[in-house]
Amino acid sequence: MKRLMRTVIELVAPTSIHYPEVPPMELGMTPNDHLQDAAPVNWVDEAEVDDVVAMDGGLAVAQGSSVLRRSGDAPVERIALPGRVTALASAGIDLLAAVSGHGLYRIGAQSQSAEVWCDEEPVRGRVTALHRRRDGVTVVAIGSVDRDLDEWAWDLLSRRATGSLVRISAQGQIEQVRSHLAWPAGLAEDNDGGLLVSLAHAHRLARVDPSTLNTLGTIGPDLPAYPWRISPMTDRGTWWVSMPLARSRFTELMLGEKEFLADMMSSVPAESWYGPSMAGGSVYREPLQLGGLRVLGQIKPWAPPRSYGLIAEIDAQGQVVRSLHSRAGGSVHGVVAGVEREGVLWLAARSRPGLLQLELANMEVPHE
Amino acid sequence: MRSVDAFKLTGRPVLSRFSIGRSMSDILSRPWVEGAVPLMLAAGLFLLLTVSTPGFTSPGTQVIIARNIGEIGLIAMGLTIVLVAGGIDLSVGAMAGVANFVALIAFRVWGLSALEAVALAVLSGVLMGTVNGALIAGLKTRPFVTTLVTLMTYRTLVQFMQQGYADDLINQPQDTTWKLLGAGRIGALPMSFIVFLILLVVVQLFLTRGRWGWRLLAVGASPKSARRNGISPEWAKFQSYVFSGAMCGLAGAFMATRQGSTSSNVGSGLELIALTAVVLGGVSLAGGRGSVVRATLGVAIVAMISQATLLNNLDSSWYVVILAVALIAFTTLDLRFGKYRGTLAQKLAMNPGKLNLGPLVDVTAPGTPWTINRRLTEAKAIGLGRVEGGEDVVIDRNNNIYCGDRRGWIWRFEGPDDEGHVFARTGGMPLGLAWDAEDNLLCAVGGIGLVRIAPDGSQETLGAQTRKTWHKIADDSLVRAADDLDVAPDGSVYFSDFSSRYQASEYVAEILESRPNGRILRWDPARGNVTVAAKNYSFPNGVCTAHDGESILIAATLLCRVDRLWISGPKAGQIETVMASLPGYPDNINRASDGNYWLAFAGMRVPAYDALMRHDGMRRRAFHELAADEWPMPQLNVSCVIKFTESGEVLNSLWDETLENHSLITSVREHDGHLYIGGLQNNRIGRIQLDPSEVGDIDVRQVPGTQRAQEDLQKAGVNA
User: How high is the ipTM of this complex?
Assistant: First the structure.
């Protein structure tokens, strides 16, 4: 009935009805193919990677249920953990790892093993991001109250906001919990001691008071993609925000179609749902949109993407100053984390190969 | 053979045949619906007055109304013609006044006969109209001002005539003809009303069916484009004013015979009444839109209001007030209706249907006839980069390869290594191809129909239309979307028309809608006409005559099934299932040399789209609210080819697992131990060698059921 009314109103006064929109990718977000130039890193397996962080003199990578650590040209250390490692944070010379179903683990600089640091209920699973502050306090982002990391699609299509932020003291005690957030998936310190949080399923970045965890407001524009992890501040005073999923008008339309969503989510396996996808699954099971049709042997790059590769560099105001893309038909999709170190951008992707590196030096900045 | 109803293949309840939205859309798209608002207004008013005004339905009142309609109607008819041609005529009342006096003077003073007097009155109208027309069309003066000036001029003329002949006009000669014209009736119908009715029919026919009317409408809608199309706007406008004058002259004559009034007020104010009537009838003041029949409805409304004011003993000034209010209300309403009618029709046109396609075979599971493989990956490319969308491919007896092209061409390759050249240009969307018994190339051309191309490349359109279904509102006579075809033993050609609502180029809309809009047509070589063999078919695509020639196989793409339509033998006219709940969207079917059949799948089913097929409302909203690139589609980027038996058993499947070379396959044709692969969106024709064990003795180019084909069949050991 409501829809009928809308139709009637639209017929009489077409300008009075508004449909949900997705902001265009323009200015700093103008699409390019830079991510396609990223080179695979050969010291990790080809499999998907969940996080990459910079630490003193090296890198740490979360892949499956292990953490891979490498400093300079030293041999790669592989630290095995009891469950899937969903997020990492460098804590001084140590590493913090969130292990699905077990809690937070601390990995010493010299040790090959990990010890439990905090396994209280709120942080035992579904951790999407970790952030260690200079005062020793750790902030943990939990995507949802009951959905695992891989079930982001369920959370997105359910239009809920059950994620939370948890503040843990230097001693490992939970001090503060802030809930009802739309899949917080990235944390970083901003330029004056505050906390940047990406609210993935609200497609916004927000600023949060680190002590009370109260939201101080959103920054930057409504994004055309769902932001995930935020890298620490670069030397240029910017942050890399990885955006593994692109928004589309079809997804926005679908969010209003409750009956269809209920039917699809109950009758179709999640990896074959309509909506965004982290990385190209089996095309034999995935739906197609008309723009993605292969015509005369080619898929056009500007086709509505199912999976997309995007990492954007934002300034302190949240404006995108440049972005690196891998468009429809590309191969570097589902970039969940990126960290810059000495002019090289390291990328963790849910496509294969999972870890890639990209020289930033020779890349022109399109919009100064 | 009677047309078979294929609706039951959708598995939907009977009620889902109908869609209120679509019927509304069809109705709104018809030109006659423009008269709907005036008609409802007239009917509503009639009912209201019948109930509220005593004596309204009495015979006396009806005669007065009919007489009113006759006289005002004639004037309104003239005015309509002027308005339709983009002008306006305010002098209609004055012209009628002059004509009234001309008739009276001619009859009473000059002693002419009644008919002569009437003719003279009409002539005076023509003269006055000529003056209007000459000024407006010749001197390019503004119609409004010009006719306002002539209105005053003609009124002055009336006064002069009245003063000059006042004494002589008292004389009233007795004349039967004169009386007959004024007071005569046939049944309950006054003379003027009958004359008006006859003229109405004639003028309506001329206006809507004749060249004269079309030119007037063109000029009224846009003088500039009319001129660019070789129509003279001046001449058309001039004619319209002369016509208006003639009609006013006739109306004046009738007034004279009826009332014989010598008051100088005769006909004054008629311009307002006529204008109101015409606008109430939905004639646009902006020109180019309107008909005299609709104007008549307006006249009826005005006449009813007029009579009702009289019967209710209201002051005559009330009449004017009511008219003015009706005029304002109606113009607003009609303007809205005219403005949004087209939009509304478009909005309602797309009415997706619900479909439940049944269980889905998992082609990614190993060890089934459907398991994905790479047999097509290494196909040799023919015409790579030159062909654009060869939907179907055929090979002639000299090994020349033919395929279509989305630019309307038919390519011909002299062998698989040839660069190819354009063999024919159809001007449409060439889809299915087949050979007839005389080695002519038959082509189902989307947008045209069935086309026969002789070996020298000359073309002949065999079937472009069929008879309109009498009970359908939308015109379904055109063959819009001919898709695939095959020849039956008797030489008739069966071809699919996948939509009688969308054009061939709009196949994407047809896919989204997924309603049984298509049909199977049959071209009869003896009569040369096209009849419907099966109606209400859901995207019928591939058509293939069975090996024994007694039935044809039909692929219903969106229903993911293949059915058999018996065309001869005891089961003629019946539809039988061959395969249902296929895991893909079947396209063209062709005979295999070993007595089986090849079937190409344009795309494969995926679970999410299957779910979407159950939600018609969402598909409609997606269609309306999203850009075409965002529309959900079946998975058309993967496809395969299967071989199946006469009974519908799937033997094996051929895939291009890499999806690089053959991602959307619409056709597969066996020839000389090879398989040729066509694709609607591909830039090549593929060719693979078949294993000798897969090849039989049947010449698949032969029309089944003919002598040679039967012999082949015997040799192949297949029970015919």
Answer: 0.92
